[in-house]
Write a structure and sequence with these properties.
Layout (H helix, E strand, L loop, with lengths): L1 E5 L6 E2 L15 E5 L20 H29 L3 E6 L2 E6 L1 H8 L4 H12 L14 H33 L5 H14 L8 H35 L1 H17 L2 H7 L4 H28 L5 H20 L9
Antiparallel strand pairs: 1-2, 1-3, 4-5
Length: 327
């Protein structure tokens, strides 16, 4: 008896498939009898992550997560401007502009918890164990290995970022005038001013924020939820690349608006975004690859992400990088 393959949840039909799970909803596929012919052997899985969902829950959930992030961070910015030291005055093009202080940045960063609400709610409603997001603490030696590889990975990421930034200017920089390049780099420094701690307590707040809030929330939502869902539907490398593109684009999408708000032409923000995208892509691809290498154990990428950000904040602090904003 010939058999067709269907999804018992969304009723999607497959004449043939290499996947054991539905690419739309993640449910386990099953055979149903159809008249005539021979029996078809059960489908063979080409590639599967720890997750049981496909690209539709991943993309919709990730989109909803960033809407929550936007709402939470805007609310926190209003409250934070009242309850914490809020702004620094930075000279820009013969004028001055207010940028968020490290204290305000850390306070607003709490809004990153909005990124994990939807993934955790999805797991709860579907009765899916949190292990599918990549949290696996059963083997202590493996957890230790996750952390060690994460520390090494975060250090390597800093080298990758510096190398990609170094080759970006000679390659893409040729598309723009020297004044455009200078202004885009100046804007980038101003845009990163909130990460430039002047005092030890600001430095400690920023580093703690990277380890306890930013890295866990961004990795759970991007690598644990989005990338795994995309890989389950489109395959290992397409899923990795798509997740990296989305993650990178969301980090630079507001550059033109932010530049205009600081008194720069919005065009300068676009130039800065174009020059920054190779570095973001390289870093995101590295994190996604680390996730795959460690068999989707997300502690590795959380550690690597946090270590990279901590190194960046440390460079700003110990080299007194904020001085360059004023001279």
């Amino acid at each position: 008896m010939n058999k067709n393959i269907v999804c018992p949840k969304c009723q999607a039909k497959y004449e043939s498939t290499d996947f054991e799970f539905c690419i739309y909803c993640g449910a386990k596929l099953k055979d149903v009898e159809a008249p005539g012919g021979k029996e078809r052997p059960p489908p063979q899985q080409k590639h599967r992550t720890r997750a049981s969902w496909g690209w539709i829950p991943a993309v919709l959930g990730y989109t909803a997560s960033f809407i929550l992030l936007f709402i939470f961070q805007n609310l926190l910015s209003i409250v934070g401007s009242i309850v914490v030291p809020s702004f620094m005055i930075i000279p820009v093009l013969g004028s001055t502009v207010l940028v968020a202080s490290p204290e305000l940045l850390v306070f607003i960063t709490l809004g990153q918890f909005g990124l994990i609400v939807v993934p955790l709610l999805y797991l709860k409603l579907k009765n899916i164990p949190i292990k599918e997001l990549g949290f696996d603490f059963e083997n202590k030696k493996e957890v230790q290995k996750d952390i060690l590889i994460g520390v090494l990975g975060g250090s390597v990421m800093m080298g990758i970022s510096m190398f990609v930034s170094w080759i970006t200017i000679p390659t893409l920089g040729g598309l723009y005038s020297s004044i455009d390049i200078y202004l885009s780099e100046y804007y980038s420094n101003i845009n990163n001013a909130s990460f430039m701690a002047m005092y030890l307590y600001q430095y400690m707040l920023l580093v703690l924020s990277m380890f306890l809030v930013v890295a866990p929330c961004e990795e759970i939502s991007t690598r644990g939820f989005l990338q795994q869902g995309l890989e389950n539907s489109f395959g290992r490398w397409p899923g990795l690349i798509l997740a990296a593109i989305v993650f990178s684009a969301l980090h630079i999408i507001l550059y033109p608006q932010n530049a205009a708000a600081m008194g720069f032409p919005s065009y300068i923000g676009s130039v800065a975004a174009i020059l920054a995208i190779p570095s973001y892509l390289a870093l995101s691809l590295t994190l996604g690859f680390l996730l795959q290498v460690r068999k989707y154990r997300i502690i590795t990428t959380i550690t690597a992400h946090a270590v990279y950000m901590a190194i960046l904040v440390s460079i700003y602090y110990f080299l007194n990088y904020w001085i360059y904003l004023y001279f």
